[in-house]
Amino acid sequence: MAMAGLYRRVLPSPPAIDFASFEGKKLFTEAIHNGTMEGFFKLISYFQTQSEPAYCGLASLSMVLNALAIDPGRRWKGPWRWFDESMLDCCEPLEKVKDKGISFGKVVCLAHCAGANVKAFRTNQSTFDEFRKYVMECSSSDDCHLISSYNRGTFKQTGTGHFSPLGGYHAGRDMALILDVARFKYPPHWIPLKLLWDAMNTIDEATGQQRGFMLVSRHQREPALLYTLSCKDESWTSTAKYLMDDVPILLSEDSGKDVKNVLSTVFTSLPSNFSEFIKWVAEVRRRDDGDQGLSQEEKGRLAIKEEVLKQVQETGLYKMVTDLLSTEKFVCQFKQTSDQRDCLPNIAATVCCQGAGIFAGISGSSNRFCCRETCVRCYRATNGVKPVTVVSGTVVNGNGEHGVDMLVPLSQTETSSCSSGSCGSFGMHPASNDVLTALLLALPPETWSGIRDEKVSQEIFGLVSTDSLPPLLQGEIIHLRGQLLMLKRCNDNKVEEDLGAPQI
């Protein structure tokens, strides 16, 4: 016998007050006048319903990340970079989340890896008075949002563990507005703050840990300007294990005579798919109506990426890596990465086929598309901004033609022979030596502590130190290091033990 479907639930009131009720509207109006609904308007602009019954943590986080206007650095659908539940999969497989939900610690991990600034507290790490202070601070600002992990049963609601953001606070009644992401079940509602604390002050049976709350805000500048870790690709687990676990052991067992020998030890055993672990943040767009120009925003963004890449290449470590990779021993090992996959015409052919599929809303195989032409264009700026490079192509499929552009930071910057709109085959996008330099800089300092020779150890620490890096590159590397450490903690199931930001 088929079971009848469920259409919402009646909100138990008291203790909750429906946001859309007369009393709920009155609380809302009073809270606005008292200045404790500032965060509400950005959150409500990006309010979403969780797409799966167990996706409350993912929906709450993607809603908050979008409200904070944090750029995910990768595409959602079409050309759009946008946080969606399906993109928050680096700490826990989505199928597992769909089946069992996600823990508080792993939502904190996801927020860190997505590029947010996060402060998280279990109830045994804070007090009710401190919680009220944080609620008031976030409710009085639109650049900080609070996500609560609580037990529904405390509110006489059906279900157990749940996540939702807080949309505001009424000081006179000491009540918080919960923007419940399970809108198919309960509407947004006001709840006494002390009762919310009691609901958080419960044990999650899956982890044996108390629930809590997190404060999510933006960093002062956008992280992952040029590089970001690719957590979606299956290669990240093997590459992360090698870099974080195997390399320190290899270095402690090897009697490296000089820096070149130490780097050779690291490179010799690199997983074959290491280049998929760290991605350069490229941007794909579609040319419509014959428009081939770049906006000032696009030019400015490319100029910043070029500067990050330039700063990578000006480090002493980059020069050492480049010299080593040019030796006969490593030429064959990196031939595929550096000679074939990094060549701009090859990138153009790949990007144009895949780009057409992306714009058509089709992912996966690109064999249904045909590249009619690809080329590299260099756009000269008239206002002193550096020239910008675009890989362009015209792709033909059954629905017509699609013009696709990919904005590319160059490794080789000799562009004097390039004229606006002209095609060519010069240059490379961030290549193996750039990627390896960034990865080596991002490794935790303790990675190198096992080097036996004191002189070599000092030289290595001088090369990989972030202290002397320019602020732009320093921020990029520190973000990469934070991602790497957080992902390792997540993979080792240690995120529940310490909710603090990774020690970088």
UniProtKB/TrEMBL annotation:
InterPro entries documented for this protein: Papain-like_cys_pep_sf, PCS-like, PCS_N, PCS_N_sf, Phytochelatin_synthase_C
Domain of life from the UniProt record: Eukaryota
Record keywords: Acyltransferase, Cadmium, Metal-binding, Transferase
Domain spans labelled Peptidase C83: 1-221
A GO MF term: metal ion binding
Pfam families: Phytochelatin, Phytochelatin_C
GO biological process, one term: cellular detoxification of cadmium ion
Keyword Acyltransferase: yes
Enzyme class: transferase
EC number: 2.3.2.15
Protein name (record): glutathione gamma-glutamylcysteinyltransferase
Species of origin: Dorcoceras hygrometricum
